[in-house]
Each structure stands twice: as structure tokens, then as C-alpha cells.
């Protein structure tokens, strides 16, 4: 059936939003850890009041940052600079808050692991290289607070650099994938609309041009009609070339109608418009979703038009609808001379897509299959279509 219109919002933007929200949760959890850590070692600080102020700033900025990264400000480099600068400033405040004993045992900085969040945020927003740069700045600030960094501290800083590179690269990869998917979805939607228009052209304009050309050619004694025949033939050929060059028949969309259509009454009305066409249907209604019914009826109409166009006068035509448990089977049959071998391939190659597009393509879009049987006995189409469930009816 119809392809949905692409989401008007940016999918990469939505992915980035989810990443920022996850990082906001991480920032909050690490802020809780900072509060616990600094409360636990409050008696070790050289300046407990300054340490308490720094801890309060951590809590306050955690809330403000969560709001800021939900706003359009998150796209501005200034927000990342402020975020990173605040963390570096609080880390350097460790030189004032930590006592000599704390320095000797390489105690965690005033903000501890909370310092990694701005780095990961830059990674999610800007990519690997800016994130690695931010990780180096944070690492330099951490090392500046220590006399002799321990192996554990160095390992932690190395992990921060690795995490910045991996998260940054992964974020860019996910966004590129989402971009490619969004472009493909837009191309499918555009292709679907383009092909739908081509079908309408085939079912309307091309049919009129072909009919005009045939009628005019039958009156070769009239110079004006002969000129009209030539003009109609040229316009038909040009239009078919345009269709052939700019589209390949494939999945297409419907008109988007809603509701339900009774196939029994619709086929009866369609048969009434085709002289000599007989119809056999179940005695009860056979409801189908309107988009599916539109495609099926359009394909059936095209098959009946082909009978009138390519078969001798007086050729019989029949429509047979069968309602099985889970499918509808619709047969369109005639007793004409049949389709010569290779005729459909030649038609498709020259831009005549009545069978491939207006019949097979429509039935495929309705979720069904179209089988063609032809020979000296005539031509028969069998459309197998999904039948709606009781709830859908």
C-alpha cells in the first residue's frame, strides 16, 4: 500500500536528543556520587566551606545543563565551552579544597567522575576529534591538581580519551546511517508519488491520445484528421519516452482514501460500463479497505480497457470474485485471441506500461499477486488479494 510520508522532523536530531537525555541521566547519577563522596570526606578538606560550595555548583549545573541540552542552545558551541570550562574550573579548585594528606594519596578531584560528562556530550554533538580535544583538556586539569599522579589516575584518564573517541565516532556513524535512511525514505516517497502520477497519465492522457490517433487514422481522406493523427501519435510517443526515462515501475502509493468499499457492488458498476462484460460475485458484501479497493478496481478497469482495445468486436469478458477465508480471488477473463509471445516485453521496452504498472504494479501495492494466463483460448488475469479480518471489516 502507500508509503508513509517521511517524518518532517530530522531523525539525526531525534537521535541526538535521546543521547543528550541519556547523558543528562548519567550527569545526575554522577552528581549524586559527588555529593556522597564529598560528604564522606568533608573532614579531610582543607577548606570544607569551599568544597561545599563547589558541590552545590555541581548540583545546580546538573539541573541547568539538563534544561540547556533540551533547548536550541545545545547546537551552539558556547554551551559546550561553558560546560567544559565549569568542569575544568571546579577541578582546578581542588588545589584549594584538598589538604596535603588528600594530595599525597591522590584523592579524587572535587568533581570526580562527573568531569567526564561534558566530554561525552561534546562527543555526541560534535564527533570524535572535538571530544578527544576536550578529554585532553580535562586530563590536563586533573594532572595539574596532582603532585605525582598514580597509575590508577593515569588509567582513568586513558579510559576517558578512549571513551571520547568511541562515543564520538559512534554518534557520527549513527547519524550518518539515520541520514541515509531518511534520504532513502524521501526518495521512496517521491518515487511513489511520481509513479502514481504516471499511472494516472497512462490511464487517462495516453488512452485518449491513442484513441484520438486511431479514430483520426480511420479518416485518412480528411487532411486535418490525418494531421491530428500524426500529432497525437507524436505526443503519445513523447510522453511514453518521458515516463520510460524518468521512472521504473515499482512500489507506488495509493490516493490515501479512507473507509471501506464493497467489491461486489463496485465490480458490478464497473462491469456495467463495459458492454458485453458479465460478472459473478458472492451474494453477500465483500468489504475491502478503500486504498486496496481503489488499486484493485483500477487494475480491473485497465484489464477491461485492454480487452476492448486489443480484441475483436464481440469478444466476451467475465469478472469472477471469490471470497475465501483469508483472501479474495478476482478473475478477469476474455475469449479473445490471446497475447502474442514477447508482446508484453516489447510493450514495456517501448514505454507501454499498462500491464506492468497499471495492472501488476497496482495489485502488488494492494499486497496481492497478479497471475496472467494467455493463449489461443483467450486471456485470464487472476488477482489474489488479502481479505481484511473481521475487525477490519
From TrEMBL:
Domain Histidine kinase/HSP90-like ATPase: start-end pairs: 299-388
Keyword annotations of the record: Kinase, Membrane, Transferase, Transmembrane, Transmembrane helix, Two-component regulatory system
Pfam family, one: DUF5931
DUF5931 domain: residues covered: 15-170
TM stretches of this protein: 20-39, 51-71, 77-98, 110-141, 153-174
SUPFAM superfamilies: ATPase domain of HSP90 chaperone/DNA topoisomerase II/histidine kinase
Protein name stated in the entry: DUF5931 domain-containing protein
Amino acid at each position: 500500500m502507500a508509503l508513509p510520508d517521511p517524518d518532517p522532523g530530522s531523525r539525526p536530531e531525534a537521535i541526538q536528543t535521546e543521547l543528550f537525555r541519556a547523558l543528562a541521566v548519567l550527569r545526575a547519577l554522577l552528581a549524586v556520587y559527588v555529593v556522597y563522596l564529598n560528604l564522606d570526606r568533608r573532614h579531610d578538606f582543607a577548606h570544607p566551606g569551599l568544597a561545599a560550595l563547589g558541590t552545590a555548583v555541581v548540583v545546580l549545573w546538573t539541573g541547568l545543563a539538563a534544561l540547556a541540552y533540551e533547548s536550541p542552545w545545545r547546537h551552539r558551541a558556547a554551551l559546550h565551552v561553558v560546560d567544559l570550562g565549569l568542569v575544568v574550573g571546579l577541578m582546578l579548585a581542588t588545589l584549594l579544597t584538598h589538604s596535603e594528606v588528600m594530595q599525597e594519596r591522590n584523592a579524587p578531584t572535587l568533581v570526580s567522575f562527573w568531569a567526564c560528562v561534558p566530554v561525552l556530550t561534546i562527543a555526541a554533538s560534535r564527533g570524535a576529534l572535538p571530544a578527544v580535544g576536550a578529554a585532553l583538556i580535562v586530563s590536563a586539569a586533573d594532572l595539574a591538581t596532582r603532585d605525582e599522579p598514580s597509575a590508577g589516575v593515569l588509567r582513568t584518564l586513558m579510559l576517558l580519551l578512549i571513551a571520547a573517541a568511541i562515543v564520538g565516532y559512534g554518534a557520527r556513524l549513527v547519524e550518518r546511517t539515520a541520514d541515509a535512511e531518511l534520504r532513502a525514505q524521501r526518495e521512496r516517497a517521491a518515487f511513489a508519488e511520481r509513479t502514481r502520477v504516471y499511472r494516472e497519465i497512462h490511464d487517462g492522457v495516453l488512452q485518449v491520445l491513442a484513441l484520438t490517433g486511431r479514430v483520426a487514422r480511420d479518416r485518412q481522406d480528411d487532411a486535418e484528421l490525418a494531421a491530428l493523427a500524426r500529432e497525437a501519435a507524436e505526443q503519445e510517443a513523447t510522453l511514453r519516452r518521458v515516463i520510460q526515462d524518468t521512472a521504473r515501475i515499482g512500489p507506488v502509493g495509493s490516493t490515501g482514501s479512507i473507509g471501506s468499499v464493497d467489491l461486489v457492488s463496485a465490480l458490478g458498476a464497473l462491469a456495467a460500463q463495459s458492454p458485453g462484460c458479465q460478472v459473478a460475485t458472492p451474494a453477500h458484501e465483500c468489504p475491502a479497505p478503500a486504498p486496496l479497493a481503489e488499486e484493485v478496481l483500477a487494475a480491473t478497469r485497465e484489464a477491461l480497457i485492454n480487452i476492448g482495445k486489443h480484441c475483436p468486436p464481440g469478444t466476451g469478458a467475465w469478472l469472477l470474485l471469490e471470497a475465501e477465508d483469508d483472501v479474495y480471488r478476482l478473475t478477469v477473463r476474455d475469449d479473445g485471441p490471446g497475447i502474442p509471445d514477447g508482446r508484453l516485453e516489447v510493450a514495456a521496452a517501448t514505454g507501454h506500461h499498462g500491464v506492468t504498472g497499471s495492472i501488476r504494479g497496482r495489485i502488488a501495492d494492494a499486497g496481492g499477486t497478479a497471475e496472467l494466463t494467455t493463449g489461443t483460448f483467450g486471456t485470464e488475469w487472476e488477482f489474489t488479494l488479502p481479505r481484511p479480518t473481521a475487525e477490519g471489516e
